[in-house]
Amino acid sequence: MARRLPDSAARRRRHRSWLTAALSVIGAFGAGRVLAPSVAVGHFHSAEAMDRYFAAYDRAMAKMPNPQQVLDIRTAFGVVRVYRFAGARRGAPLFLLPGARSGTPVWADNMPSLLAHRSVYTVDLLGEPGRSIQTRPITDAHDQAAWLHEVLDQLPDTEVNLLGLSLGGWSATNLALRDRSHIRTLTLVEPVQVVDGLSPAAILRSIPASVPGFPKAWRNSFASWTAGGAPVRDVPEAAMIEAGMQAYRTRTPTPDRISPEQLTTLKVPTLVILAAESPMHDARAGARTARTALPTATVKIYDGASHAINGERPEQIAADVAAFLGKHRS
What we know:
This protein has helices at 7-29, 31-34, 47-61, 111-115, 141-153, 167-178, 200-210, 216-226, 236-247, 260-263, 283-293, 309-312, 314-327, and strands at residues 43-44, 69-75, 78-85, 94-97, 120-123, 133-134, 160-165, 183-189, 248-249, 270-275, 298-302. It is an alpha/beta fold. It has a single domain, classed as Rossmann fold (3-Layer(aba) Sandwich), CATH 3.40.50. Residues 1-8 and 34-38 have low confidence and may be disordered. Keywords: Hydrolase.
């Protein structure tokens, strides 16, 4: 049974998770992506902005366990930062893909429970603020899959179990549809644009919150909306994400919805975890799509959870992932 947090600690973790998830969605679908003029690659807009961002990144990273390895993997689209954390040796490691603008530190709450079951890789997404460095334009879903495949192809472990959160769930699915050569299983946690489209309200509310020159209060208002009206607070992960929104110009395409017809071609054992109270999409409609298009998939809905499910339910996610991997001997 998962340890119950004291009420105050649970609230702090929920507020941190809600703000982190909200800012990630802003980064993925807001005006910074949709309205910006075409530029070759993502970049920091000044050396001072970059320094501010990495100071925030390092503060957030301090909450993570010490990595066993730090890998900078060269791909055709840039150099990708990957961390490997030593955990239980029970099978192929997990490879965690974060949401937009969140990076490795977003997994701080999840690491203890996940490492109890497996070793873990984390990645800073290419074309986003973080320790990865984009050097070539990423223009479409094929490019997004190509750089990720190149990363998996160069890992010390030949096979991994992909786990994607939010936009990371889209990234994991996008690769698995094109090349599953290094993928044992797929776990999609609140994936956006996969089993259901992003809600119109989430898109509309994210646009004014995503413009760097607009007041911070607008972003906090959006974050509070994703949390059902709960207040939000600055914490290291959220401060890192907001610093990235201010400092970095992302130039990757907004992800297209993966159709149910495409999902029917997915031949990887899949676990889908959805949050019943997520305002980003209709979780129950998404569950119906997943069960129809992926009849052999394991589909779970967490009642009472929001889009920030990874911070709200880390032990439950780890237990469900462990059971799923054990079922498939992965």
